[in-house]
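Field notebook, page 262. I keep forgetting to write these up properly, so this time I am using the form the group agreed on. The chain and the ligand, NAP, are recorded exactly as supplied. Prediction of the bound pose follows.
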Amino acid sequence: MDLQLRGKVALVIAASKGLGKATARQFAREGAKVAICARSELIDKTAAEIANETDTQVLSLRADVTNQADIERVINTTVEKFGGLDILVTNAGGPPAGTFDDIDLATWETSLNLTLLSAVRLVKYALPHLRQSTAAAILTITSTSTKQPVQNLVLSNSLRLAVIGLTKTLSQELGNDKIRVNSILPGWTYTERVEELINAQITKTGETKQAEITKINAKVPLGRMGTPEEFANVAVFLSSPAASFVNGVMLQVDGGIIQGTF
Ligand code: NAP
């Protein structure tokens, strides 16, 4: 199937590693021009790696999504460099792990900024450019925690639901502009974020890393965690013109971990 991405411009946020990196790489393999951002210098290495593997242009930008000026610069530089913007993938590092008792009020505020307001700002600055595109799509990366709370993740369980509300609302409001808006809800996918969560869990339980991994695998009907590439294949399809009638969908990519019917 031709995803019709050749020459399109995709901006993937928080993409130096993990789900963002895998998604950016897959866009590049499909011939899209790709802009990626993250805070550390690893982003330059990731961009070079993807550019070397593919025949497309990759723009690397250092930016912190909690900073409004950085977001504005990322959008403007992408448009200046590539002449427009077709696809925006919102993403950020996950908020800290913890139970309600563990998380203080200041951390609630910084996490709100990281998880919800980053997406709001990205869409605000991207919209004028997406409105010019004939293949516009926004994809938010959220979590299965929005369907079924995950233990020890009160911030993710709470704040990502607001991103789902934003995604669904935008899918209704931007239909007239022919902009599709969807979300992917990843389940357990083996990245550095998951390593961090496993380490946090080990501190509480005193179990070995392998024991914690086995516990997670046992919760997934497919018996294992997903790979970033499995996530990226779905993210890129959903954002591509090949999915041109898919709008307002909150799609789990989770090996079947969510037990509810809807
Ligand atoms: P990851 O491996 O930790 O990668 C996070 C990426 O975000 C890195 O590139 C990091 O680079 C960047 N980043 C972090 N904070 C940032 C900021 N303030 N501004 C700009 N970039 C920032 O995480 P992941 O597993 O890919 O997960 C991506 C998102 O999906 C997270 O929100 C995570 O909670 C969520 N999620 C993941 C899973 C899973 O199983 N992996 C499941 C559900 C939801 P820098 O540190 O250099 O900025």
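OBSERVATIONS:
- Residues 105-130 form the longest helix (26 residues).
- Helices lie at 18-29, 42-53, 68-82, 105-130, 154-173, 192-205, 209-219, 228-239.
FOLLOW-UP: compare against the apo run.
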